[in-house]
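Structure, all two chains, one model.
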Amino acid sequence: MRKRKFGLVLSSVLAAGAILGACGAKDEEPEKEKDDVSKGDTPTEEAFSIAMVTDVGGIDDKSFNQSAWEGVQAYGKEHNLTEGDGGFAYLQSKDHSDYDPNLNALLRRDFNLVFGVGFMMADAIEAIALDNPEAKFALIDAEAKADNVVSVLFKEQEGAFLAGVAAAKMSQSGKIGFVGGVDIPVINRFHAGFVEGAKAVNPDIEIQVKYTGAFDKADLGKITANSMYSSGVDVIFHAAGGTGNGVFSEAKERKKKDPNANVWVIGVDADQYEEGKIDDTTNITLTSMLKGVNAAVVDISNKAKNGEFPGGTTITYGLAEDGVKLADSRGAIPEDVQAVIDEYKTKIVSGEIVVPEKVEK
Amino acid sequence: MSNRVINILVPIVSIIIGLIVGAIVMLVSGYDPVQGYLALWTGIFGDSYSIGNTIRQITPYILAGLAVAFAFRTGLFNIGVEGQLIIGWLAAAWVGYAFELPKIIHLPLALLAAAVAGAFWAFIAGFLKAKFKVHEVIATIMLNYTALYIANAVIKSLSDGGFKTERIQETASLRSPFLRELTDNSSLHYGIIVALIMVAVMWFILEKTPRGYELKAVGFNQHAAEYAGMSVNKNIILAMTISGMFAGLAGAMEALGTFQNAAIQAGFTGIGFDGIAVALLGANTPLGVIFGATLFGSLKYGALNMPNAAGIPEEIVSIIIALIIFFVASGYIIRVGLQKLSKKKEGQ
């Protein structure tokens, strides 16, 4: 009896498996047909498909990864691609161990160019690029030594310099703050530029600096911003991805409580104007230091599509190349301050001022 | 239904219920559950690459599960596996790159260093418990943070302000070109063998040695054990130390196998905490831990393929995976249900 019952269970499990399997097979067939149809629509040229792997921030970090994803989408729109195989796609990494499987997964789906977004991904990209010499990769924010990887760097220090000028000019208390993510060279460049810029217009300014050690912990950003604002800081520049969202929420809370408070945040990577919005007339985003990740993604994708993939090289985008700049402040920065900012911008572009990449200790 | 049948049925029914509830979540949020589960399945077993990476993911889970299970068996709750793992990771990575030795010495030395480091970290908690009655849960939780930030500081100073140590020497690596070729360049490494040996070691210590008998006796009833002439304090320290050794080795898997270095971590890896669930799923037995680790590791790795192949967002995937584990963990409810069902039938 017992045995028979066990057999029944076993066979029903197997049957369920078979049914599931059958469903799967059915689902695959129409998809193939679909593919054929879409190929029939565009017989002129084979689509050059691109995909990206995010860092731990995720594509909705309102900053670095999101900017890259916007670039991927913009490229897709430009060339009438759809999201999915043969078009464009992204995969998110939850921690370091996901980089490798995610990059490989996209390779297996035959994307022509795969972007790795973020400094931490350098090792994974380099290893996979060496394993797959035919594939094409682009690495943003770090350099990889492989002939089939193009490395993209930004002169964050130049944009951050202007943010520093703006912060120092707008501060009434003479105290400004910098909230960084992980203590790595990229963020050090933001830090160094910000300090240089602020000191250039006000040598006596007090600059509080805090690295939170994470790009995805908004709560840490909020605590850090709280202690900075409480000690009299009135402008904070954050270069901390998702962690920086906490800086915005702290600033907004303060502004809501006291509408006359001089509280500002300078956003990073993307235009974070929306992040600082309290109501139609109040916004605590002073400006944002734009990092043209999206433009770089489109630029490199198009180059690769046209057969000019700059593999093995490093491309650097600075103020002169419009790779970094300050966002429209929508009136938050008065004209006289804007004039000073523009003046420094010209000096940096012409090479009169060279902004250091590292903070002098 | 006999107990044996129920024992086999419980995990199967729990997994099926978990899958069904997960499917409902996918349906409600507008995704195709069949596609989703197929993606999960191929993510785990789809090709040699996936299988290789799944095994790689299972490896540290086995060791973390052993660490927790061993402590549980002796009546201790080692919630500090995470910290012991991080310290072991660091130690293995350091020995891995700082020395130049032939492989036959270097690799065992690096593994040993991780085991000793993890054991030491757990020893602290064991010692405090034995001598000063500091509860091991508090001590190990605090030691987790201590381990995380000490490791970060050490990595930073070892690498002159960088965020990761140098890559370990080839002679200390658990990876092999053979396994990579076999599994289409996955990051599978020989660590799984180390993990399986440790499963045998735990079984041997607990079941075949007088010391293991003592450890279990202390776990069952401290006072009775003491009355029988066993030294409770000595056994507490020993149990924590052995538990920490397993945890340290789990760290070595990451250092010598998966990552080949130690990098600054913004937060915990989670492996140590998942180890608690792995141990509980496996009823704290060495073989059960293999089952629990396989389930956890497969789901965790396979889940990566759900956004990739079926376009289901990360967040939904996390919910589904958590549901499956939830139902497996609440096997007791299903057990009671099954028993009632069979009683009813017998009554008729």
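Chain A is about 45% helix and 15% strand.
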